[in-house]
Predict the 3D structure of the following.
Amino acid sequence: MSISINSLKVEFSAKCLFDNISYIINPKDKIALVGKNGAGKSTMLKIIAGLQKPTSGNVAMPRDTTVGYLPQHITVSDTSTVIDEVRSAFSHVDDMKARLDEINHQLATRTDYESDAYQELIEAMTYLNDRLAMEQSENFEAEMEKTLIGLGFLRSDFNRPTSEFSGGWRMRIELAKILLRRPDVLLLDEPTNHLDIESIQWLENFLITKANAVVLVSHDRAFIDNVTNRTIEISLGKIYDYSVNYSKYLVLRQERLEQQMRAYQNQQKMIQDTEDFIERFRYKATKSVQVQSRIKQLAKIERIEVDEVDTSHLNLKFPPAPRSGDYPVIADNVGKAYGEHQVFDHATFTIKRGEKVAFVGKNGEGKSTLIKCIMGEIPFTGSLKIGHNVKIGYFAQNQATLLDGELTVFDTIDRVAIGDIRTKIRDILGAFMFGGEASDKKVKVLSGGEKTRLAMIRLLLEPVNLLILDEPTNHLDMKTKDILKQAIKDFNGTVIVVSHDREFLDGLVEKVYEFGGGQVKECLGGIYEFLEKKKLASLTELERNTIRPLTDSNNTKEPQTSAKGQTESNKTDTPAPAKKLSYAEQREREKRVRKARKKVDEAEAEIGRLEQEISEIESIIAEGNPPADIYDRHASTTKQLENAMSLWELASMEFDEISK
């Protein structure tokens, strides 16, 4: 069932948002809708969903095509439990049954067997019968449970009233309902904004394996890269359609812009030459024919437009960090409970000066709670020491909403700025894309991204050596996120980041703390090393719990064994004979073992190289009069060695698991 967007035009107060746009959404397309803020991405989704009318043009879709639309912001007023609200996703089955009964009644009473209308009724009946057969073949209750757990809910949440949940969790309930309906096309506007890393990965897998057509808007680069196979860019009222994912689109887009610029420059030169000719010979009778010809030629030229390139630049740089003690944060058996609910307990860890670490885990597992403990905002059990001379800069998850909406952008910063910095407020605001009249805007009219940037400016006004950032990338576009990431990488202090954005955390943090099940676990290495380790751990757990019955030739029941061949019976410790692999399976296993062995060898080689480099640096230091940057090189190489050791550990675990 293809959906056709035909000659779409949308105008807002004399401004043309879309100009004669046409394209087709095919049944299995996974489309990323991209473009700068204000280009019309959300408007496009609303038009396809039938919630907004275009100025002209139309969206044509076959009858009975189902559409699921998740907006960025929703207002819900349901009063049922989570499971009852999600169960309403299957109300369309009752609607299909009613429609089928109506069609059967018409077919039984009509006699115009040869008419087109009668044939259409037969086709509709066939389609509805097929849909009902497919819908009823699935276990609704099991699907609801899998979807809710995939989106981060616990079974204990199922019978809780929806009114007890925050807006972000209510959004997850709406998303679950939409996914369970399995519509022909899913329209998702920033679906990852309220999801944690594990839920995002689950949603990715669902969209890739179970969804039909998908059109999504997202600032999560890793998410759209993994899900989509087509990218449609909206720019200057037109669209550019690429049959590739986002990363490949960026390369092709750059090539297009370069070609466009060359064509534009060539045309401008030709126009200038023509205008010069007309001006030079306008009053010469002998050249009047040529002049008139050139004037007509100039009028017929279709002017090349250069697509808008966002040239504004966010020059974000944190002030140099004053030196703190060696250990800015030392936690020993820290715990926090609300009533009988223990959020986490026995959290014990040490964060060294200069480390950049991530707090990750499902929402509600205590990431923001532990930060509030570090900030001294809430009481806790255990010991939590803040190091000598530690100055904390804190960006809260709701920082943008705490701004005074009645103040202007300039006044917001002027009220917190002290000393010489007050003379540079306009320059700072300009660097954050609040130049000119934008600095006189009231905060209440700013977008979510603009408010986040404004809150970030306040954080920059005072030199700190411990940055604590709780979901700093929400509402930031990809370009601004990249600039913020580089600024944090360049910051010479200590950083704690709470984020669900894998692309943002990749290459930024060297240690991950996982929150879950009331515990806080440390994992050395970056975010993808952590996710790989989690995947290996879950595979090991799966293997440990997999049990299969074995029967002998007399069909007598034998003790059950695990996938590793260990007998579960208490009567014997003799392992069951391993299943003989086929030739193809043996070859595949050997290939996996070789690949895993290669990873281990490469990791060991990298460790050897880094150890040698550290030894050479230490020799230089020992000789006396070392270069100024030698200590930074030593610290950087030591961190690289720690990461390499973590990678070696992961590779060794994988090799051991495969080669058993």
Observations:
- The first strand starts at residue 3 and ends at 12.
- The chain is about 45% helix and 20% strand.
